[in-house]
Amino acid sequence: MLCIVLLRHLKAKYKQIVLQWIPGHSQVAGNEHADTVAKKGAKITQTHIREASYYSIKLHLIQVFRSAYRQELGTKLSKKPWTQELAIIPDWPRRKAVAEFRLCVGHDCLGTHFHRIGMRPDRYCMLYSLHETMDRNRLGRCTALSSGTECERYWEARTKMMEN
User: Fold this and answer.
1) pTM (2 decimals)?
2) What is the torsional sign of CA 95, 99, 104, 107?
């Protein structure tokens, strides 16, 4: 039935189709070999080849990668000093959680972090010229900041540093 549909489709596109019977084993060069190979091929179980989208292939590769490297990543993360501190963050409001996460891991966008990634020539506080390293400890003592909680001071420091 599928052949008839395909033939009609090709005919609608003005393609000429010729079906020609060729007798097997009639001394035509290569015909006997072709007949043997065709019979072998007909006995092979055909697998269903389905097309896969870019998205489905990408998801599959991500799953393979995660399963292959999950244990290795877990081992590396368990050695980090801030792993236990991050365990309490999930239930916090987003603004507070982001500040805490950044301060815990040291990617806090304060002077020390900017120096480490090459955006500042030194680690010192940009808000008050005391020649002290601008990090989590300095954040609590910085007189240029007026807010109360560590989270509020972090966001105030970020805002003021972006203005400088």
Assistant:
1) 0.46
2) positive
